[in-house]
């Protein structure tokens, strides 16, 4: 008999001429295929539409493959992209997990399953068991962006038109939906928790306080906030007498932010424009904040990006760059296939060392401080998932169940990445020097932690 490493056993018939041939073995069930590629016993329960199952019956979490379409997604895009397609389309569910927050199920799944490449004989047997129809690619869920090689019609990578399309893909989902997920602050960047028991709103307010103090802003100063989102930093600064200009490539964000500025009575101090940061004509700002933009501009564009910021600052002005980073500075910058297709098309991440180096190399800027807020982002994502669960029915009504499922999956998966130090979040503070290389800043950090 033929025994696979997973423990799945197929008995050979004495009438078959070659019991080792996949053509002479019974077809494998879907559960047996999962066992064969998972490399051992499972701690989760797996069930499939063909009636087969594997794993402990009393497992807390499980995977339920509901349709043949789901099998096609898994076969034609092995890895996270195929799993995401099947899950978003509703062909695969995570039993025991709310779709608004599948964090615990995903963590258990990632701890438990390590897919191994089976032998050629086993692969042939799997292919025969599945049937050729599952190897023919089918249309992905409508939320998926085109693959990188097909986005050339939108312009070269990180051209203005293609960047605008990428921002539209992610940020123009629905302002109402973002209100459900982000809460009253409407802040879609990492919070800074003063303690582990603090609320999300307290932590987001504390993040703006930290940025404001690091930039040493005073009433009457001028702030440029690049990639300003729904204007949280702009309004925080304006409430303290700072003249703040925010720019975003998302028209829906700009319209929402302008309404909030009017509603808060901040029109004298605050403005948010639907604009590329490269089109800001004003200069001589006392400070520039860039909170969650660097991920979108491309590492090769860092020199031009930082030079543009330098040129908009007055001598002695300060820059605070806040962005997701990698824990190293190796060459692999592009996001994985799931993130690239469903979350941040063309997004790129690199280590804080690369960011600091590129900032230093443009000349005229001195890096003063850097800080890693990795754990804070895991906690932020936890609270966003919680908000999605609390507002699930309304969120589904607003954007549809598949989009809501996508967001639950994406945020929970990212939380695991921050938990496990796969990604980090760094703030880098720098100042513009005068022509003699002097900086007009205090000798020691002047902000509260």
From TrEMBL:
CDD domains: AdoMet_MTases (cd02440). GO terms for biological process: lipid biosynthetic process; methylation. InterPro entries: Aldo/ket_reductase_CS, CFA/CMAS, CMAS, SAM-dependent_MTases_sf. It holds the Pfam family CMAS. The active site is at 414. GO terms for molecular function: methyltransferase activity; oxidoreductase activity. The keyword S-adenosyl-L-methionine applies. Keywords: Lipid metabolism, Methyltransferase, S-adenosyl-L-methionine, Transferase. Residues 1-26 are annotated as: Disordered. PANTHER family: CYCLOPROPANE-FATTY-ACYL-PHOSPHOLIPID SYNTHASE. Belongs to the CFA/CMAS family. This is Cyclopropane-fatty-acyl-phospholipid synthase.
């Amino acid at each position: 008999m033929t025994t696979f490493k997973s423990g799945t056993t197929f008995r050979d018939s004495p009438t078959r001429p070659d019991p080792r041939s996949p053509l002479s073995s019974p077809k494998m069930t879907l559960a047996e295929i999962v066992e064969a590629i998972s490399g051992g016993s499972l701690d989760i329960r797996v069930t499939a539409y063909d009636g087969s199952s594997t794993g402990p019956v009393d497992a807390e979490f499980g995977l339920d493959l509901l349709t043949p379409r789901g099998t096609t997604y898994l076969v034609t895009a092995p890895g996270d992209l195929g799993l995401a397609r099947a899950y978003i389309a509703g062909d695969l569910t995570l039993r025991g997990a709310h779709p608004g927050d599948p964090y615990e199920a995903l963590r258990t799944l990632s701890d438990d399953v390590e897919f191994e490449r089976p032998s050629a004989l086993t692969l042939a047997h799997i292919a025969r068991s599945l049937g050729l129809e599952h190897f023919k690619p089918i249309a992905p869920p409508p939320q998926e962006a085109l693959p990188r090689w097909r986005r050339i019609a939108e312009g070269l990578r990180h051209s203005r038109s293609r960047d605008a399309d990428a921002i539209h893909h992610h940020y123009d989902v629905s302002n109402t939906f973002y209100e459900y997920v982000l809460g009253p602050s409407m802040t879609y960047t990492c919070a800074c928790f003063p303690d582990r028991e603090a609320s999300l709103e307290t932590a987001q307010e504390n993040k703006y306080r930290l940025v404001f103090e690091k930039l040493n802003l005073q009433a009457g100063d001028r702030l440029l906030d690049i990639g300003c989102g729904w204007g949280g930093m702009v309004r925080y600064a304006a409430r303290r007498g700072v003249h703040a200009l925010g720019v975003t490539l998302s028209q829906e964000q700009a319209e929402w932010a302008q309404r909030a500025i009017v509603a808060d009575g901040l029109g004298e101090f605050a403005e948010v424009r639907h604009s590329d940061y490269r089109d800001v004509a004003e200069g001589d700002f006392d400070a520039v904040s860039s909170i969650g933009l660097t991920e979108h501009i491309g590492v090769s564009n860092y020199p031009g990006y930082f030079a543009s910021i330098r040129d908009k600052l007055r001598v002695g002005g300060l820059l605070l760059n806040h962005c997701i980073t990698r824990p190293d500075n190796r060459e692999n910058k592009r996001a994985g296939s799931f993130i690239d297709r469903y979350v941040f098309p063309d997004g790129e991440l690199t280590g804080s060392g690369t960011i600091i180096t590129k900032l230093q190399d443009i000349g005229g800027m001195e890096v003063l401080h850097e800080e890693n807020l990795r754990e804070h982002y895991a906690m932020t994502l936890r609270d966003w998932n919680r908000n999605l669960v609390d507002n699930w029915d309304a969120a589904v009504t607003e954007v549809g169940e598949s989009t809501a499922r996508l967001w639950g999956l994406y945020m929970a998966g990212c939380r695991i990445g921050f938990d496990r130090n796969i990604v980090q979040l760094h703030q880098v503070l720098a100042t513009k020097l005068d022509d003699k290389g002097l900086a007009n800043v205090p000798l020691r950090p002047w902000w509260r932690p």
